[in-house]
């Protein structure tokens, strides 16, 4: 049985620039949880450690104090390496054997995971400040598995709604109290059993929470101002604010600690970012500490209905 899990970066992190200039791949948000948090949740019975590029290591240590970064947990004899770009679920865990001979799990030429012990573990230890690749394990048995993983920034946006639904199932026990915050009279909740409102959240009069097409997760201390409309699947992180009359459409993740107004659709907004005025944001991914000024708009459709072209690495 394995002693620990190493959540690692491979050499394709540059395909996610600019998002991964300042954070490891496993710290990208998709759904309610980051990619790394999904791994930790699915393998909650095993200690974990984090791997990243050397220049990000100290930042990751500050963000996750007490977590081992670029080193194995003490006394590790056998470890499961999991690629931080994988969208992990229970199906992923069912394909991985946590004991037996050393095994490399791949999807095509992509290193997905590796069960490593003994001499192969020493090879990994010597390269922990660099991306981990298949070339480290030329003689280890390979097994093809079918998983989802993130290659480009739009993969996060395209999978966000599905992941809100999946993460909601991981985090919310429907047998417990689902409405824990203060909900004023004249709040409309459509498909109420699909709505979770955490402690100290405040939902003001005139708000519509429409969970008919997917769940709505509202975190601790969230304030939703009057007449805002939120459609599921949607995640509003702790201490975020949804401003008066905001229109938050499906497949959107916000926060924690954000202020959002206007119209937002199928977007991901990391913590401490603001879009609190009118304007449209669609099919977008915002990092931390972003501020969009009044009437900032982006378009998720070309005026000539043509294909959108994106430059990666020039």
Could you characterize the architecture of this molecule?
This protein is of the alpha/beta class. The protein has two domains: 4-151, Spore Coat Polysaccharide Biosynthesis Protein SpsA, Chain A, CATH 3.90.550.10; 155-286, UDP N-Acetylglucosamine Acyltransferase, domain 1 (3 Solenoid), CATH 2.160.10.10. 15% of the residues lie in helices and 24% in strands. The protein has helices at 35-42, 57-63, 90-95, 118-125, 153-171; strands at 4-8, 48-50, 78-83, 103-107, 110-117, 141-144, 182-183, 188-190, 195-197, 202-203, 208-210, 216-218, 223-224, 229-231, 234-236, 241-242, 247-248, 252-254, 259-260, 263-265, 268-269, 274-275, 280-282, 285-286. The strands form four sheets. A six-stranded mixed beta sheet has the order 2-1-3-5-4-6, sandwiched between helices. Strands 7-10-13-16-19-22 form a six-stranded parallel beta sheet, with no helix packed on it. Strands 8-11-14-17-20-23 form a six-stranded parallel beta sheet, with no helix packed on it. Strand 4 and strand 5 (110-117) form a beta hairpin.
Secondary-structure map:
Blueprint lengths: L3 E5 L26 H8 L5 E3 L6 H7 L14 E6 L6 H6 L7 E5 L2 E8 H8 L15 E4 L8 H19 L10 E2 L4 E3 L4 E3 L4 E2 L4 E3 L5 E3 L4 E2 L4 E3 L2 E3 L4 E2 L4 E2 L3 E3 L4 E2 L2 E3 L2 E2 L4 E2 L4 E3 L2 E2 L28
Parallel strand pairs: 1-2, 1-3, 4-6, 7-10, 8-11, 9-12, 10-13, 11-14, 12-15, 13-16, 14-17, 15-18, 16-19, 17-20, 18-21, 19-22, 20-23, 21-24
Antiparallel strand pairs: 3-5, 4-5
């Amino acid at each position: 049985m394995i002693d620990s899990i190493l959540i690692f970066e491979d050499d394709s992190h540059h395909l996610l620039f600019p998002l991964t200039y300042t954070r490891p791949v496993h710290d990208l948000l998709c759904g309610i949880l980051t990619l790394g948090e999904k791994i930790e949740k699915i393998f909650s019975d095993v200690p974990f450690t984090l791997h990243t590029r050397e220049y990000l290591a100290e930042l990751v240590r500050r963000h996750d104090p007490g977590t081992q970064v670029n080193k194995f947990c003490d006394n590790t004899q056998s470890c499961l390496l999991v690629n931080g770009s994988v969208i992990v679920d229970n199906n992923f865990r069912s394909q991985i054997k946590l004991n037996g001979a050393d095994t490399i799990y791949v999807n095509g030429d992509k290193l997905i995971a590796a069960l490593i012990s003994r001499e192969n573990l020493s090879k990994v230890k010597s390269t922990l400040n660099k991306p981990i690749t298949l070339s480290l394990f030329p003689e280890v048995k390979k097994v093809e598995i079918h998983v989802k993983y993130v290659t480009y920034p739009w993969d996060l946006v395209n999978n966000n709604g599905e992941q809100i639904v999946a993460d909601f199932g991981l985090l919310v026990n429907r047998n417990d109290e689902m409405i824990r915050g203060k909900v004023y009279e004249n709040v409309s909740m459509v498909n109420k059993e699909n709505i979770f409102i955490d402690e100290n959240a405040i939902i003001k009069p005139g708000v519509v929470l429409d969970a008919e097409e997917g769940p709505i997760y509202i975190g601790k201390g969230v304030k939703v101002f009057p007449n805002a409309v939120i459609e599921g699947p949607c995640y509003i992180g702790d201490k975020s604010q949804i401003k008066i009359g905001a229109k938050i459409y499906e497949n959107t993740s916000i926060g924690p600690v954000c202020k959002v107004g206007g119209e937002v659709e199928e977007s991901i907004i990391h913590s401490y970012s603001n879009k609190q005025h009118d304007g449209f944001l669609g099919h977008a991914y915002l990092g931390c500490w972003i501020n969009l000024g009044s009437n900032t708009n982006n378009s998720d459709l070309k005026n000539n209905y043509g294909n959108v072209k994106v430059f990666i690495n020039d």
